[in-house]
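Justification of resources, computational component.

The compute hours requested in this renewal are based largely on the per-chain cost of generating structure records like the one below. Each record pairs the submitted sequence with a full structure-token output. That output is archived, and it is also reused by downstream analysis tasks.
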Amino acid sequence: MKQLFLFVSLLLIVHGSHAQSILNKTVSVNVTRQPLATVLDNISSEGNFHFSYIKDFIRDDSLVTVNVSHKTVKQILDMIFQGSCQYKEIGNQLILQRAGKEKWYSVSGYITDAITGRPVSNVTIYERMQLISTMTNEQGFFRIRLRERDQITALTVSKDLYKDTAMIIISGHDQEMKASIKPSNPIMLSIVDVSQYSHVEQTLLGRLFLSSRQRVRSLNLSEFFTKQPYQYSIVPSLGTHGKLGSQVINKASLNMIGGYTAGLHGVEMAGIFNIDQKDVKYVQVAGAFNIVGGKFEGVQFAGLHNHVLDSMKGLQASGISNVIRGSFEGVQLGGIVNHIKGTIVGMQAAAVANLSEDSVQGAQFGGIINQTKYLNGFQAAGIGNLVTGNTEGVQLAGIVNYTEGFKGFHAAGIGNIATGTVEGLQASGIFNYAKKLKGVQVGVVNIADSSDGYSIGLFNLVMKNGYHRLDVYSDETLDINLAWKSGNRKLYTILMVGTSLNNNEKAYSFGFGMGHSFRLNQKMSIEAEFISQSVYLGDWKYPESLNRFQPVLNIKLAKNVTLFAGPCFTISYHDAAATPVAGYKAALPGRYNAFKMGDNVSGWFGWHAGIGFF
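The structure output for this chain reads:
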């Protein structure tokens, strides 16, 4: 009788406890984007119980939306926590705890070719929700371990040049299976530029830091990409997304050594390298290098090298090199070299070289060289600037500037070369060359095929319509003078030397001048010239300086012979401390009368006449 009483009492207790179970209580919840703590308070108030939990595990400040009526507490909690919590009742309290250890099961089998029946190696088998994958070996065998979550799981079988195949399995137990995959239908390929479809796996660093299996997996899964809020990895395939990390686009990515992901829409950092298959936004930082297979928008920093296989907008900086295969807008800073295959709108700066295979609209600053096809902006280099097309803007180089057509200003320590038309100013320490000059050249030697502009230098050579003449003449101060005139009729320069033939009144002179020619007809012209010359009278300490203004009447006697003469007005500066030297002229102009224009300045009217050749 006693045992029967205890048994009945126990049944009543169990029945009563079941009737009072907190998880089975029915409640209604209607909230939109409310803190989890508020939602739990509403549920506990309606069910007349209390929640207990550790805040480190339950983030009660997260926002929750729940709209249900007459559901059990367990059903509502399962909706909120998605199986990540387990529940324990103690009296009038419901304790929320982290769910227990997940259960795993394995699926293995063989993949064969549906046509030949032969095993297929390097086939990727993956579960897209759990981001778990594996590959077949040379016998076509695979094994994959999955978490037990849903009753039915779908595995996808992918292989380059084969059709994707889905395998539906009942989860929860180890099992074996076989699958056959069919080759893709053949397609007719049009002619394409293969460089447009380059992949990060094909780069030198990609081949070096990615295994062959990782490259094959990316090739197999070229149509499968997914998104996740974040990822963390030590090296590629060893991280939160496992072997399928290369197919995931993240908002936050942290790689201890290096990472290999599908793309980024946020921030990515790595101790050594980041490799992304597709587009990247907004910040990417690596200790050694970054490689992006798509477009980049934002800021990219690397200790050694940045490589973007498409276009970029933003700031790119590295310790050694930056490479962009598409166009670029922004600022690019390289410790050694910057290389862009597309157009540039912005600025490049490198310690050695900036290279652009298209056009630059902006500025290039290179320690040694800048190169582009077209320039609309500014170039400065320690050695040289090279523009294979036209330039509009400014070129500054320590040694040489080279361009085709030019409009603007370029200056170089040694020379400027323009193989097209120059509209602007060429200035150099030694020489300038222009195919067609419509501007100004300033240098020791100036060369142009044709000229409608002005060449200022010691030697000016215009090949087609230039003015070149060697004059032999005499004037009131020196018996014989030689003058070389070069340039064009708008402006030509004069190099002259002269001497006296009287051994008792010696004098030597050299000078530089400029002139302009007014053509009267085919035979006659008038020239206006200014010449500044120094005259040696036996003492270099006190040379005499002459400034001569002279009109010249030219009469053409033959094709290469011209007779000329004209008056001149000379202003002379001489030092009062100078004393005559025996055998040299005592004073200029000698037998001609001069009038004082100051203590050390005098002037006179004179003449010159001679014959010109060429």
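The helical segments are 2-19, 36-47, 73-81, 204-209, 212-220. Residues 467-613 form a domain with the Porin fold (CATH 2.40.160).
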